[in-house]
What we know:
The protein is mainly alpha-helical. It has helices at 16-39, 44-66, 76-107; strands at residues 5-6, 12-13. The chain crosses the membrane at residues 16-38, 44-67, 79-100.
Amino acid sequence: xxTTHISGDGVGRGSLVTYSSGLILALVLTAVPFWxxxxxxxxxxxxxxxxxxxxxxxxxxxxxxxxxxxxxxxQRWNLMAFLFAVLMVVILVGGSFWIMNHLNHNMMPMMIx
Length: 113
């Protein structure tokens, strides 16, 4: 029932069923963290972990259902470009945190301890 339309360049396009299931999953993955935060039923650390987990799952849902990034041969270069972009963002953000931490340590040594 899940038919995928293939365009002339070999890239798969989603069907109505694919987009609908992606939309439903995205809505659920948005409502669950909202409920977790607004209900206050769990400690803050559990809510933070739950929101982070649903955010990661929602990223995967958007990549698969809406952007059609998967491991197929037609999408392999798109997947590699995406993974390279993720690596660059991790290096930039991690390096920025590292530099700021060392700046704080070197500029205010009397505050440590």
